[in-house]
Specification:
The chain is of the alpha+beta class and 259 residues long. Helices cover 16% and strands 39% of the residues. It has a 12-stranded antiparallel beta sheet with strand order 10-11-12-13-14-1-2-5-7-8-9-15. It has a 3-stranded mixed beta sheet with strand order 3-4-6. It comes from Pelobacter propionicus (strain DSM 2379 / NBRC 103807 / OttBd1).
């Protein structure tokens, strides 16, 4: 089975106009979409498409949910980069916990037919409180390679934080999931770094003990995520960071987002 858990830490650091930094421990599911029907077989508290403590729901991803998720991902990657992934699609994400789900970011790792060669990433971002979803495909053939990192520089197209303007350049870095998984993001504005974030995770197999352990440690992880977002927003407001209203809808060249 390729599906697994990843546990570790996420960290953010804002450099200007006021400093603000935090680190939180958390976990993600890494799901091979071909294994969804069997991945939680015989797991009492975990399920797919039915209520449970932890549940995967197709409707929580890639709205509207009019196609099977696997097909929708392949179609979108082909639309954006001109090449259709032919191998496994594996998703790093949060599930629905006690009926609630919020994913600031989910990442689809699109592999070749050998199951090892990475062909593309599809990044799925949700914002709050607007409830919008943004999809951006990244071609492994065009990104820079820096040691183990796949690196991409992108202009900002989607309003995520009300405390970050739109004239931002992203520097995204991804590793291929293995025993460890990492993502790094740096934001620059007018040539100066204003923010960076990192995600560092370690793989754990989907055993009963590991699944039970993450629920004991993080029983309501998605509530923790949304609470942390609003708590950090309040800290930024206290520190006098300017509020950036949601811009009018943009003409997006490659990405796609939905209300």
């Amino acid at each position: 089975m390729e599906s697994c858990l990843y546990t570790g830490q996420v960290g953010h650091q804002r450099l200007t106009p006021a400093g603000n930094a935090f680190h939180y421990s958390l976990f993600f599911l890494y799901l091979d979409l071909a294994e969804l029907e069997t991945v939680f077989a015989s797991r009492w508290l975990w399920s797919v498409e039915r209520p449970n403590w932890a549940s995967f729901r197709r409707a929580d991803h890639f709205r509207p949910a009019s196609l099977p998720l696997d097909s929708a991902v392949r179609n979108e990657v082909e639309r954006q980069i001109g090449k259709r992934p032919r191998g496994p699609i594996r998703l790093l994400t949060h599930l629905r916990y006690l009926g609630y789900c919020f994913n600031p970011i989910s990442i689809y790792y699109c592999f070749g037919e050998d199951g090892q060669t990475l062909e593309a990433f599809l990044v799925e971002i949700h914002n709050t409180p607007w409830g919008e979803e943004y999809l951006r495909a990244l071609d492994s053939r065009t990104g820079q390679r820096d040691a183990e990192w796949h690196r991409y520089r992108l202009d900002k197209e989607f309003h995520v934080s009300p405390f970050m303007p739109m004239d931002i350049v992203y520097d995204w870095r991804f590793t291929v999931p293995a025993e460890q998984l990492a993502v790094r993001i740096s934001n620059t504005r007018q040539g100066a770094q204003v923010f960076h974030a990192s995600l560092h995770l370690r793989r754990q197999p989907l055993t009963g003990g590991n699944l039970g352990g993450v629920l004991l440690r993080w029983p309501f992880i998605t509530a923790k995520v949304i609470a942390a977002i609003y708590w950090q927003a309040l800290r930024l407001k206290w520190k006098g960071v300017p509020f950036c209203p949601h811009p009018e809808r943009l003409d997006i060249r490659k990405g796609r987002y939905h209300q």
